[in-house]
Amino acid sequence: MSILIDKNSKIITQGITGATGLFHAQGCRDYCDTQMVGGVTPGKGGTAIDGFPIFDTVEDAVKATGANVSVIYVPPIGSADAIMEAVDAELDLVICITEGVPVLDMVKVKHFMQGKKTRLIGPNCPGVITPGQCKIGIMPGYIHKPGPVGVVSRSGTLTYEAVWQLSSRDIGQTTCVGIGGDPVNGTSHLDTLQMFEADPETKAVIMIGEIGGDAEEKAAEFVRDHMTKPVAAFIAGATAPAGKRMGHAGAIISGGKGDAASKKAFLRECGISVADSPAEMAQALLKIWQP
Amino acid sequence: MNIHEYQAKAILRNFGVPVPEGHVVYNSNSARDWARRLGDGPWAVKAQIHAGGRGKGGGVKIAKTADEVKKFTREMMGMCLVTHQTGPEGKIVKRILIESGCNIADEFYVSFLVDRATSKVTLMASAEGGMDIEEVAAKTPEKLFFEPIDPLTGLTAFQARKVAFKLGFALPQVKQAVLVLKGLYNAFVESDCSLLEINPLVLTKEGNLICLDAKLNFDDNALFRHLRIRDLRDYDEEDHMEIEASQYDLSYIALDGNIGCMVNGAGLAMATMDIIQHYGGSPANFLDVGGGATIERVTEAFKIILSDKKVEGILVNIFGGIMKCDVIATGVVEAAKQVGVKVPLVVRLEGTNVALGKKILAESGVDIVSADGMADAAEKIVKAVKG
Hints:
The complex is a heterodimer.
Chain A (H helix, E strand, L loop, with lengths): L9 E5 L4 H12 L4 E6 L7 E2 L2 E4 L2 H8 L3 E4 L3 H13 L4 E4 L6 H11 L5 E3 L5 E4 L3 E4 L8 E8 L3 H11 L5 E6 L10 H10 L5 E7 L4 H12 L4 E6 L23 H10 L3 E2 L6 H8 L3
Helix pairs in contact in A: 3-4, 6-7, 7-8
Chain B lengths: L4 H10 L7 E4 L2 H11 L4 E5 L12 E4 L2 H11 L3 E2 L9 E2 L3 E5 L3 E12 L4 E7 L6 H7 L4 E6 L7 H10 L4 H20 L2 E12 L4 E3 L3 E4 L8 H4 L9 H7 L4 E4 L4 E5 L2 H13 L6 E4 L6 H12 L6 E8 L4 H15 L5 E7 L2 H9 L6 E3 L1 H14 L1
Parallel strand pairs in B: 14-16, 16-17, 17-18
Antiparallel strand pairs in B: 1-6, 2-3, 2-6, 4-5, 7-8, 7-10, 8-9, 10-11, 10-12, 13-15
């Protein structure tokens, strides 16, 4: 088992005729034969690109391919619309990779999604991978290994760093989820921890957070009150100055709330093994858990 | 993106929100003329910089005569204004707002922002106007009121009334407050703000509500649909290095330390700064070269890092995923040769084709220290800089 995606997932790519969309659709297809079953580009329905059939609408694509997951590379101006189209087509999961989606567009999307069955990951995220089975997104597949650790993070390359630390110690991963760095996104650290807790194959979790907001604190409360599996964490941004935005829209700190020191202290109170250095994420987990 | 107070007030005026009559000036003679045209005194003379706390730093003065407006403007223009938000270096005053004064009976605080927890635009209000709102939130959180707003209906009249009654307004002011708050909400959503803050919202002795100060920040990701707002960007208010970097799609923020950093990915870049500090060093900057670290971008990144005279060493930390390490290594070597890096340079590469990448670094003839892992890299650069 795993969470969110596995070898049975059938994926369509929204924005497949763009250079980025096509490049990553090919990369995902090449990873363990992930079922990339087609793409959507309005106006190009009925054609194909590199063996991927193209449809005008998500609805058409779902009817023809039986897809249950969509991945979005549509530029920011159309990302919110693309997400809503996928939600309307009743897909199980939508992963929006696009960086730079306006926040107020996401406020509308979240409202639109209420009461609907679809889960959204992102936007502004690297995607999701279940090693050995299915890769959806822009992460380098080869650094991952199948195994017992779940990984959840707001950031891309820092997730790769954690995965690398695990894989080079011969510890594999069930599923690695990049939830994205934006202030309004589809799936939180808390949502992901709940899924890892319910997944019998996941035995331990690494959670990577950033300064700003209180999403990590809410996840930590769940760890304290409900989680039976060991969790290690790292919080990036201890050296970030107040009021400055560090690339991710999410990582903004002001007025002392959401700073790295208070986040780390609270996570420790909740029984999480917190790494002080980003080079020690795997070690922090191994302090409280043996594979 | 930030804008000046006078620009924010102009936007609010378009949404029917009451703000004082005023005009921005660039010299003291026109200050006196504009004061006279605005009517009888007193007038407020307000320095326009992108930072709060101007009053305490001498950037806001009340003038009783038009000659006094001229005098204050002359004193303020070109001065270096230091507030708790500018940092010790302060900011040079180049624009001044001349405004009609008003008779203040009471002051309130109102802001709109996107609450991550609810994914909704939220109205935040307090009767503790004119104060630092972070202080109010920390010391007396019960004095702050929140109203999450449904994106379908927008701010409703009943929500605005609820807040107005909580602020202690009498009925005539409650009616005014509904119009003011709805106007502010409309300005927020139609301009794609990330923050709209009125501190203080003033109740005048005549019984009118008016926004005495206004701060608007915009969502950079939405500027593509707000060309008029984008034109208000004041480059003088921004770090010239950050502007330079943004032209090459590099995300750069200057810090106080002496170890320059070049990293791919914002999270890893922050973590790299953290690990430098963890080993006793101090980062000189945040720099995210992004996914496609071409030779040109790496070269520009080196130039930007080295133009900071505090930099005594550079740490390059790249996790090559889609990007291959040999390509990055070639870029680093080429750039280091072109720019002529004379400070210690530690490079940590990991990921696709890492062995080939390290070979290229080793055989380049450029003085590069190769590192295994982030911890090793941070230790090496901290040691090299400390000598």
